[in-house]
Design goal:
The protein contains four helices and 56 strands. The protein is mostly beta strands. Among the domains are: 146 residues, no CATH class; 231 residues, Alpha-Beta Horseshoe (Leucine-rich repeat, LRR (right-handed beta-alpha superhelix)), CATH 3.80.10. The protein is globular.
């Protein structure tokens, strides 16, 4: 849900029972008014004043889908405090309409406070976080006088503390999740660097660190990375605008999406030969980056990887067999005349074809083998935007939607199906005006993402899709028993309220980039199998009350926070990934403790234990 107001100091409070919806009386500051909004999915109260802390109260649609005893979702956001004194004490509970609710997450964000209170400054020297808080974020706060923050034993996430030169962080010695080490906040086992404390120009990451997870450190210029580092996570160095050079050790295998985005002073980065993956937008807006070497094992240069790297003029590709796949917009707004240095003619030919077929990309590029130019003046193939229009066609019981500028191009969609059949297999192509066009997306929704129920939902028992980018919004297909989706490139889900659905199989491609968004409220679903998928999202597999088995085959990159819950009969989760899977805190919080998780190696087991799962984790032989 989009909030109208800007969050300045936020505390998320999970409520446990249905709240009565009544108007609230409160005294509000100048320039603020109490507001109330309601739509079919939620109720929201804005700017509720409780003891001089201002809250937004949001009540989500789950309440209305399960009105009697159901598991509704409730949030209270405390936006900012205007209390007196040197010490800001966050309350452990607040009283709302006569009931007390615990605060479990805090966001301190005063970036727009001065626009409402021109004379108001955050006066606090001390911040006391209550025992109930699990996450505390200070990214946008401006506590010019801050000296101490007291952190209780239940807090698992603490970040945004790098801009306070005199700050002392005091973490409860019994905290099992985080600790102070080497002037920074690390996970308790010392393997993950979570946040720097105080302003630093140079920082040497501690030995044994395998992951880095922080961003936006304004004064940081140099970072020394240990040999133990395997993963640079999403946005790790994002907006570190003063970093000029980076040398990554030989064991690092993955650079996450947006890892160095907006590092505007970055001129050079040395990558290890074992590097396998560079994420989306990893070096976007690195205006000073001039040269780059793509290691042999990198198979794909993803969208926006080098977008707006306006000085990037030389890229060396080390693969001698194949050019990495170049996504559209990977090199958009790089230097005109950019040179690509390759090993042989085979790679040169493949690279030229890809660069030429991008709709947004290089201008007057050159490809060289050694010092010899083999292709010159290569330009992307821009899509004309004039006279663009939508084309709707229905063929063989399927409704297609195209967007055209005089010649059809991505993305081509299936919007509706009228077939009366028990088994439906989505075609990969459609013929229109004597030409064949690929189908990229199957999306059963309206333009505003409202799900529609195709006529075929009344008869279809097995749904098959292969080799498409996206499959989404299968909603209330009441006859559907099985979904088989293979080679899904980008996105899968939501799949909701299909009451007879028993099995789902999803596979991605070898790059394992598929994002699985939501599989929810399917009463009969018993088994989910995936292969080579990238991300299991937050709130992904939820309220499937008869689900018993989940199997993650092949590659798996990331399991987000609270990815599985409300599946009370879940007995077995198998993770067959050979390499370390990134597991967020509380990723398995909603999994019953009697559910057994089977893994391939001790590294994956350790990652799951570190996320907080208390149940049995078994390493398979």
């Amino acid at each position: 849900m989009k909030r109208i107001s800007v969050i300045l100091l936020s505390a998320i409070i999970c409520l446990t029972s249905l709240l009565p919806i009544n108007a609230l009386g409160a005294t509000f500051p100048d320039n603020y008014k109490w507001e109330y909004s309601h739509d079919k999915d939620s109720y929201t109260y804005y700017n509720v004043n409780i003891n001089n802390i201002y809250y937004d109260i949001e009540i989500y649609y789950d309440i209305f889908s399960t009105p009697s005893g159901g598991k509704g979702t409730y949030y209270v956001y405390a936006k900012f405090a205007k209390t007196k004194g040197d010490t800001l004490t966050i309350p452990e509970t607040i009283n709302f309409q006569g009931r007390n609710f615990k605060v479990n997450e805090i966001f301190i964000d005063d970036q727009n406070l001065e626009s409402h209170y021109k004379k108001w400054k955050m006066p606090y020297k001390n911040v006391i976080i209550p025992d109930s808080v699990e996450s505390a974020h200070f990214q946008y706060a401006k506590f010019t006088n801050i000296k101490k923050i007291y952190v209780p034993k239940k807090t698992q996430v603490l970040d945004g503390l790098s801009d306070y030169p005199n700050l002392k962080v005091i973490i409860d010695k019994n905290n099992p999740y985080i600790k102070m080490k080497n002037g920074a906040i690390y996970s308790k086992n010392g393997k993950k660097l979570l946040s720097l404390v105080n302003s630093k120009k140079t920082y040497k990451v501690s030995k044994g660190t395998t992951k880095i997870d922080f961003f936006g450190i304004k004064k940081l210029e140099k970072v020394y990375l240990p040999a133990s580092l395997k993963t640079i996570t999403f946005g790790a160095f994002r907006r570190c605008r003063n970093i000029k050079t980076v040398k990554i050790n030989s064991r690092t295998e993955k650079i996450g999406s947006c890892a160095f985005e907006k590092c505007t002073s970055l001129e050079r980065i040395d990558l290890p030969k074992n590097l396998e993956r560079i994420g989306y937008s990893a070096f976007m807006d690195c205006y000073s980056l001039k040269e780059f070497v793509i290691p042999k094992k990198v198979k794909k240069v993803k969208s926006s990887t080098f977008e707006n790297c306006t000085e990037l003029s030389r890229v060396e590709i080390l693969n001698e067999e194949n050019s990495p796949k170049i996504d559209d917009e990977a090199f958009v707004n790089t230097a005109e005349g950019i040179e690509f240095i390759v090993k042989n003619q085979t790679v040169a030919d493949q690279l030229k074809e890809q660069l030429s077929n991008n709709t947004r990309g290089v201008k007057k590029a050159k490809i060289l083998i050694g010092d010899k130019v083999v292709y010159d003046n290569i330009n992307c193939r821009p899509i004309k935007s004039l006279n663009s229009y939508n084309i709707i066609t229905t063929q063989n019981g399927i409704k297609y939607k195209f967007h055209s500028d005089g010649g059809l191009y991505n993305t081509n969609r299936i919007k509706n199906i009228y077939l009366k059949s028990k088994k439906i297999k989505i075609p990969n192509t459609v013929k229109y005006r004597d030409k064949i066009y690929d189908i990229d997306v199957v999306d059963f929704s309206q333009d505003l993402n409202d799900p529609i129920i195709p006529p075929s939902a009344k008869t279809c028992e097995k749904f098959i899709a292969d080799n498409i980018k996206e499959l989404s919004e299968i909603f209330k297909w009441n006859k559907l028993k099985e979904i088989k989706a293979t080679n899904i490139k980008d996105y899968f889900g939501p799949i909701r309220k299909c009451d007879k659905l028993k099995k789902i199989y999803i596979s991605g491609d070898d790059e394992a980039l598929t994002f699985i968004s939501e599989i929810s409220n399917n009463k009969s679903l018993k088994k989910i199998v995936t292969k080579n998928v990238g991300t299991i999202s937050r709130d992904c597999i939820i309220n499937c009350e008869n689900l018993k088995t989940i199997i993650f085959k092949g590659k798996l990159s990331y399991i987000q926070r609270k990815s599985i819950y409300g599946c009370d009969k879940l007995k077995k989760i198998t993770i067959e990934a050979e390499k370390l899977v990134e597991v967020s805190n509380k990723a398995f919080e909603g999994v019953p403790e009697n559910c057994k998780i089977y893994v391939k190696n001790k590294a994956v087991k350790e990652a799951i234990k570190e996320s907080g799962f208390k149940g049995n984790i078994i390493v398979m032989k």
